[in-house]
Amino acid sequence: MTTTGTEEKVNKPLDPANLTEGEKKHIPVIEAPETVTAGEPFEVTITVGSIPHVMEEKHFIEWIELYLHNKLIGRKELSPSGEKAAKVTFRIEADEALIAIKEIETCRVRGVNICGNCGEKSVITNLHAVEKCNVHGVWESYRQIEVMSGEEKEEGKKCVWKA
Question: What residue spans carry the region label Disordered (predicted)?
Fold first, then answer.
């Protein structure tokens, strides 16, 4: 059982390939760039549900949290608004230290990618969105994101990873 900081059970889809209508209304959808550069701000938008969740007095999303590599980045409290969807945007930035942390946590060979053209480092990590519906509890989703090192960046050159 997965829990949030509030120690509540996190609901998960029974069959991720065939979501129910209720699951489609509660699982957070994360919109973010596929690749970001450490130290440069970027936006992450979280919409609750691929089918928009209502924000009515009796049924609404109480809050949405965003984590980057298991670190809480932000939390937005919400309230009934009559809007057709629960949606928030966070402006965040990945710290250069994330690359070193990921390298230590995993493996020096597979934890960090090194570009064969420019020597730039990157890591693949997760954005993790968690939301709480006042009626149906806590739901979560994940999305991978690549964080490029900003220290050795060669401007205007798209990295091609060496095999």
Answer: 1-25
pLDDT at residue 162 tops 50: no
- pTM score, whole prediction: 0.81
d(CA 12, CA 115): 36
Considering its fold, how many domains does the chain have in total? Answer: 1
Extended beta strands in 3-136, E state? 10-11, 28-31, 35-37, 42-48, 61-68, 71-77, 87-92, 113-114, 121-133
Q: Alpha-carbon distance 154 to 39, whole Å?
A: 15
Tell me, yes or no, whether 22 lies in a domain: yes
Report d(CA 154, CA 120) in Å as an integer: 8
Domain range for 81 is 10-93+126-144
User: What does the alpha-carbon distance between residue 132 and residue 63 come to, in Å, rounded to a whole number?
Assistant: 6
Tell me how far apart the alpha carbons of residues 42 and 21 are, in angstroms, rounded to a whole number. 31
Q: For the chain, where are the alpha helices, taking DSSP H only?
A: 21-26, 97-105
> Using 50, 70 and 90 to split pLDDT, how confident is the model at 3?
very low
Residues listed for the chain: 163
Residue 51 belongs to a domain: yes
Confirm whether 119 is domain-assigned: no
